[in-house]
Amino acid sequence: EISACLVGSEMCIRDRSRSTRLLHHVGERLALLGHRYVKLHVRDLPAQALVHADFNDEVLRVAREQVAQADAVVIATPVYKAAYSGILKAFLDLLPQDGLRGKLVLPLATGGSQSHMLALDYGLRPVLSALDARHVLPSIYATDLQINWSAEQGLTLDPAIAKRVSDGIENLSASLSALNEVAALNEFDSIPFSSVRCSV
Question: Quick one: which of 13, 38, 118, 161 could link to 146 by a disulfide (CB 3.0–4.6 Å)?
Fold first, then answer.
């Protein structure tokens, strides 16, 4: 069972963008907490099928199914000119109207400055709610200066953003565990009617 689907939506093709590195960091931390996840990079989907909303495309069908099977969706996007990436919007448009029903969603974003941080709450959050997400967790926005990468040290986060990321991961993990407990309580073995004994 997939606990989380990690949806990355960097727009340019380079080694890894800051938003992608942050997304993978969250996935690795979730794995350490016992949750299984799959990665979905929107830019790797067939561009023509994505732009033309080709619902018959097999690759897009598999991507939509990955989202459908997950209990949670972690979305990472760069923010440019106060807007989340267009390629992410194109993918979200391919989901059914209730494509996030019952799911937890953790939005992540990176941008050049703090002036773009409201793009998550005023741009992305309403779209996620319209897709019937069970709960959209508090968004995490980091500036480029708060996320650093080097081949020697790997990913390093500014202490303030590291705390927010850690809190977001713990919140998501706890919520996933709670969902699994509820699901376990709702499961029971059916009893054939012929085996039921009643006394009056």
Answer: 161
What are the structure tokens assigned to 186, written together? 């709702």
Q: Which token pair is 60?
A: 């897009």
Residue 170 CB-half CA count within 13 A: 6
3-state SS, one letter per residue, for 37-96: EEEEEHHHCCHHHHHCCCCCCHHHHHHHHHHHHCCEEEEEEEEECCEECHHHHHHHCCCC
User: Cα–Cα distance between 96 and 38 in angstroms, integer?
Assistant: 20
d(CA 147, CA 158): 7
Secondary element (H or E) of residue 2: none
pLDDT digits (tens, 9 = 90+) for 15-33: 468 899 999 999 999 999 9
- pLDDT digits 0-9 by tens, 57-101: 999 999 999 999 999 999 999 998 888 999 999 999 999 999 999
Q: Kindly give the pairing relationship between strand 154-157 and strand 147-150.
A: antiparallel
Strands 140-143 and 104-111, sheet pairing:
parallel
**What backbone torsions phi and psi does residue 61 show, to the nearest 5 degrees?**
-65, -45
Closest CA relative to residue 45, chosen from 65, 68, 15: 65
pTM as predicted: 0.86
What letter would DSSP give residue 7?
E
CB 2 within 8 A of CB 62: no
